[in-house]
Amino acid sequence: SRSLQPTTNAELSRIIRELTPEIIAGVVDELLLVQHGKALGYRLGEEQFQDLVEGIKTENDIESDEALLAVLEEQEGMTLDDLRRVMEQQMLVSQVQQIEILNKVSITDVEARAYYDSNLEEFTEPAMVTLREILIAAPAEETSVNNFADQQARAEAQSIRERLLAGDDFSAVAVSVSDAPSRANGGLIGPIQRSEISEMIQQVIEPLAVGDLSEPIQTPQGYQILKLEMRTEPAPRSFTEVRDDISNNVFNDRRLAEYNRYIGILRNDAIIEWKNEDLREAYESYRARETDPVPPS
After folding, report:
1. Nearest 5°: phi and psi at 140?
2. Which of 157, 191, 249, 294 is deepest in the core (most CB within 10 A)?
């Protein structure tokens, strides 16, 4: 863009201040790939460039070359030659990465299966539960008056449990009498991971079968009745389900490792001539502390 085409030393200094060392390093890596692509004989042919231009025009509803030139100038500060140079650089980077990196990276079904077997916990769905609750509020302070209110709340909770055991609909009763915010959903809680439930509640629901009710549980808020609506045990997803995910993850790890190896070779072989000392210092400082370079997209 125009902002990256300085015409004065002051403007160049401004751009350098705005660029992070990471961006500078990324630009250098990309230029190394472009240079190697040119050395291999790749170029953006006229016919290929025109096809790309037509694609841009179609995607952006631009009717003519003149209109495209106007848009480039207004929005990007670019000429058609600038566009071609950018496209050719992108093509060269892509070609070099395909030949020197991607073609050397693969993962077999045997390797994917071995990864699956060694990392089964990564593909295991957690234990889940769905509950319904009814809360009968009771005062927390221990006074004679509050003690009586607590006994009333306990008795009411026990009476409600007996109604439920006799066949009353839990959801309807929750809407009618519960003091918990979940009353708006018929007392529904979840589904949630079992590990996210308090240890006390886990112990309460552990012996319950789906559909069972707990005894009234005393909590700081009052007396709570729980119904176990659903429970699932930890279950690994099948290898077939996760095969593509494994391939993508392992492939990306290997791609990055191969990129780091290859770009390291290009850097070691390159002779970089710096026109600006600030850029050189920023680049060398970044390289000195860098561990995982990221390949150009």
Report:
1. -85, -35
2. 157
- Evaluate the omega torsion of the peptide bond into residue 191 and state whether it is cis, within 30 degrees of 0: yes
C-alpha atoms less than 13 angstroms from C-alpha of 264 in its C-beta half-sphere: 10
Spatial distance between the Cα atoms of 58 and 147, rounded to a whole number of angstroms: 78
Between CA 158 and CA 168 the distance in angstroms is 14
Q: What's the CA gap between 23 and 29, in Å, rounded?
A: 10
Which pair of tokens denotes residue 82? 């600038």
Q: Cα Rg for the chain, rounded, in angstroms? A: 33
Strand partners, 218: 223
CA–CA distance, 122 with 25 (Å, rounded to integer): 34
pLDDT (mean) for 271-295: 72
pTM, rounded to two decimals: 0.48
Select from 9, 32, 31 the least CA-distant residue to 266.
32
**What tokens does 148 get?**
């009586």
Q: How far apart are CA 186 and CA 197, in angstroms?
A: 19
pLDDT of 261 > 80? The answer is yes
**How many H helices and E strands in the chain?**
11, 6
In single-letter form, the type of residue at position 47 comes to E
HSE (side-chain half, CA atoms, 13 Å) at 72: 17
